[in-house]
Known about the structure:
This protein has 2 helices and 4 strands. It has helices at about 15-25, 70-110, and strands spanning about 1-10, 35-45, 45-55, 60-65. The protein has a 4-stranded mixed sheet with strand order 1-2-3-4, with helices on one face. The relative contact order is 0.13.
Amino acid sequence: MKLTITGKNIKTTEAISNYINKKLHKIFKRIDDIDVRFSLQVDKNRHIAEVMVKQNDFIFHVNDETKNLYTTLDNVIDKIEKHLINHKNKNKVLILKKNVAGKQKLENSHSF
């Protein structure tokens, strides 16, 4: 996993990067070639986190905003996990549809 963390009006400390890395490691423990880019921003009392996750042809963006940085990070990471679960489920459905279509095609070609 390649993790990039940038900050605007906030210093990206080691504590922040360790927190993000620990949370993401739980989600991506079986995925190697993934690029995750965090962009953190603070405007007055608003903590904004924008994340881009990229793996092969699968790319998605997630963002969140709250008054607390760690709450924002938790929300964003939860959204990432939901996206990955949805993507995984869609892939399972597509594979099942291909297998069913392939079996039907094979059965039709063997009928006399």
